[in-house]
Amino acid sequence: MTKVLIVDDHPVILRGVRRIMEDAGVGTVHEATDIVAGYRLFHRLRPDIVVADLTFRTGALSGLSLIRQIRALARETRILAFSMHDDPVIVSRALESGATGYVLKDVPAAQFHEAFEAVRAGRSYLPHALATRVAMLGLGARRSPLADLTARELQVLSLLGRGQSYQAIADALAVSYRTVIGASAILRHKLGVRTLAELIHVAVSQDENGFGR
């Protein structure tokens, strides 16, 4: 009997996904509304499938960290990233972190069901349009400025765009203050800016384009 864990901090999303799971004949559905609770439940219950959002109030793109932690603990677990992000860089990072499939939150219920069933069967899932955009990342044309950033660097950049201080970012990502300073320096180098103010301007611009939402 399939066990599923849903990790999302939006009650409406949780209810909707639970209903789809029940319609799909899933025997047991567990829910968590933050990263810490999600990991603890996973560690205790070891569900077959995890449906995880990528963005939580406590930290931009922190769902990537959850995916990596689950993958490191149990490689056989199938993970469906369920997100509003359609940026191919974010999609690519989710897959690199260990997601089995990726589906957008604005798709019809039937498409989400298709994605879930593919992941439940052990197959990867990525909508054709997103797969094409991810494949285009390596071709150089219209290359995203985010393409060379790691998952951690994306998290730091997004939180900078939200006006978070270095210490607040360190607390949100559970890393040291020095780690955030180092990541900021690397971001300035990769994005071709010289000052923190310029870096924050880039971060805000990306956030306005939907990167940090």
Pick out its properties:
10 helices, Rossmann fold, five-stranded parallel sheet, 2 domains, globular, 5 strands, alpha/beta, Arc Repressor Mutant, subunit A, single chain, 213 residues
Short description:
The protein has 2 domains: 136 residues, 3-Layer(aba) Sandwich (Rossmann fold); 58 residues, Arc Repressor Mutant, subunit A (Orthogonal Bundle). α4 packs across α6 and α7 crosses α10.
What does the oligomeric state look like here? single chain
CATH C-level name of the largest domain: Alpha Beta
| Shape summary | globular
CATH second-level architecture of the largest domain: 3-Layer(aba) Sandwich
Radius of gyration: 17 Å
Strand and helix map with partners:
Elements: E1 3-7, H1 11-23, E2 28-32, H2 35-45, E3 49-52, H3 63-73, E4 78-83, H4 88-97, E5 101-104, H5 109-120, H6 128-136, H7 151-161, H8 166-173, H9 177-191, H10 196-208
Parallel strand pairs: 1-2, 1-3, 3-4, 4-5
Helix pairs in contact: 2-3, 4-6, 7-9, 7-10, 8-9, 9-10
